[in-house]
Write a structure and sequence with these properties.
281 residues, alpha/beta, Rossmann fold, 42% helix, Ppm1/Ppm2/Tcmp, transferase, Tetracenomycin polyketide synthesis O-methyltransferase TcmP, methyltransferase, TcmP-like
């Protein structure tokens, strides 16, 4: 695998770590894959704080996708940059057409652990090439998740991909996380992905501007560290985690944005809304 592909082992470790400890996310597949991968991560890549953070991010994606599938059962799911993530298993193999897409070398590895079915396919392609359109029929509604992917695209490549998604499908709902431009600059100094050999990433600061360039509509920002997940940590861990990953500084570096191809009536609601926290405020 190249440097970008090898970054998949960082979230795989994080999910395996929390699952084994019975907190935040249940993912027995991640536990098995990590044990058998025989990959050595060092430094910040094995940080328990990063593991908590990536697992919480996965929880938010899972909840959003589950709700989108419930609301749009006739849509197709595109999991772009799927890596070795077992999201389809965590969601219980929902009765919907689902496509996991990543680089060919990643998909070759993935095929050792996952099997295609009539409703589940794996496609090995560079998402920048547009070849995915030869595999997935257009003109239908699509639910797209891009977890830990956007920062590896040059800005013009990313605009091209999102524009393609918006024009190829009849309707698009998209959830994606991204670095800010400041985070992209700071990554040269201490980002865990550098330990896999990645030396350059990109960020964005204005989701409204991205929407204008791609023809999509910015819906809302989501919280990647929901209170219901943080409360599963010990009291001391909660204090440290809030400082590292749940405060204003972290939010200025890493964001989670929802887009769609057309604005729908009504206010979007996070599937992980915390009523108890809302009462506190």
């Amino acid at each position: 695998m190249d440097e970008v592909s090898r970054t998949l082992y960082i979230p795989l470790y994080g999910k395996a770590h929390v699952s084994r400890n019975g907190i935040i996310l249940s993912d027995p597949t991640a536990e098995t894959l990590w044990d058998r991968a025989q990959i050595r991560l060092t430094g910040k890549s094995r940080s328990r704080w990063l593991a908590y953070y990536l697992a919480m991010r996965a929880v938010v994606y899972d909840a959003w996708l589950r709700e989108q599938i419930r609301q749009n059962p006739d849509a197709v799911v595109l999991h772009l940059g799927c890596g070795l993530d077992s999201r389809i298993r965590r969601l219980g193999h929902p009765p919907i057409q689902w496509h996991d897409i990543d680089f060919p070398d990643v998909i070759r590895e993935r095929r050792h652990w996952f099997r295609e079915t009539e409703t589940y396919t794996m496609t090995g392609t560079d998402m920048r090439s547009g070849e995915w359109k030869t595999v997935i029929p257009g003109g239908q509604p699509a639910i797209v998740v891009m977890e830990g992917v956007s920062m590896y695209f040059k800005p013009e490549e990313f605009v091209c991909l999102l524009t393609d998604l918006g024009t190829y499908f009849s309707e698009v709902r998209l959830l994606m996380d991204c670095y800010s431009t400041r985070a992209a600059r700071l990554s040269r100094m201490g980002n865990p992905i550098r330990e896999t050999g990645v030396n350059q990433v990109w960020g964005m600061d204005d989701p409204e501007a991205l929407a204008v360039k791609t023809g999509l509509v910015f819906v809302q920002e989501h919280d990647m560290t929901p209170e219901c997940c943080i409360r599963q940590l010990s009291f001391a861990e909660q204090m440290i985690f809030r400082q590292l990953y749940a405060g204003r500084l972290a939010r200025g570096l890493y964001r989670l944005y929802e887009f769609r191809s057309s604005q729908e009536p009504g206010q979007a609601v996070s599937p992980l809304a915390d009523p108890e926290r809302d009462r506190d405020h």
